[in-house]
Amino acid sequence: MSATPEHAPASPPAPAAAAQLLARIRADRRADRWVPAFERDWAGALEDSRHSYSLAPLYDVVREWQVRLDTAPAVDAFLDSGKDDSDFVPLEDVLGPRR
Predict the structure, then answer these.
(1) In the chain, how many domains are there?
(2) I want to staple 48 with a disulfide (CB 3.0 to 4.6 A). Which of 5, 24, 38, 57 is the partner?
(3) How far apart are CA 26 and CA 23, in angstroms?
(4) Which residues neighbour 28 within 8 Å (Cβ) at sequence distance 6 or greater?
(5) Using the 8-state DSSP alphabet, how is residue 28 labeled?
(6) CA–CA distance from 36 to each of 16, 33, 39, 66, 80 (Å)?
(7) Residue 8 pLDDT > 70, yes or no?
(8) CB 56 within 8 Å of CB 11
(9) 3-state DSSP assignment of residue 47
(10) pLDDT digits over 22-79, tens only?
(11) Domain that holds residue 43
(12) Which residues contact 40 (CB under 8 A, 6 or more apart)?
C-alpha cells in the first residue's frame, strides 16, 4: 500500500499564464473567433471565482485553452488530410462542460 495518491492534482498555472495564453490566441489564425471566446470564458471564470473564493475556475480556463491551442495543429493536419471525421467525439466529452 502506498501513501502516494493515484491522481495528484495538477499544479496551478503561472501567474502570467492567462496573459501569455491570450497573446498566443491573438497570434493564431483563429484569433477573430477565439479571442472573444476566451474573454467570455475568462469573464465567467472571474465571476465564479468571486462567488466561490477559489482560483480553480480561472485555472480551468487556462488549462482548457492551453489544450485547445496545443492540439490545434493536429486538428488542422487531420482536417487537411481529408480523412472522414463523421464519427467525431464532442469536445465537451473530452474537456467537460463549458461554464
Answers:
(1) 1
(2) 57
(3) 5
(4) 34, 69, 72
(5) S
(6) 19, 6, 5, 16, 25
(7) no
(8) no
(9) helix
(10) 999 999 999 999 999 999 999 999 999 999 999 999 999 999 999 999 999 988 888 8
(11) 31-80
(12) none
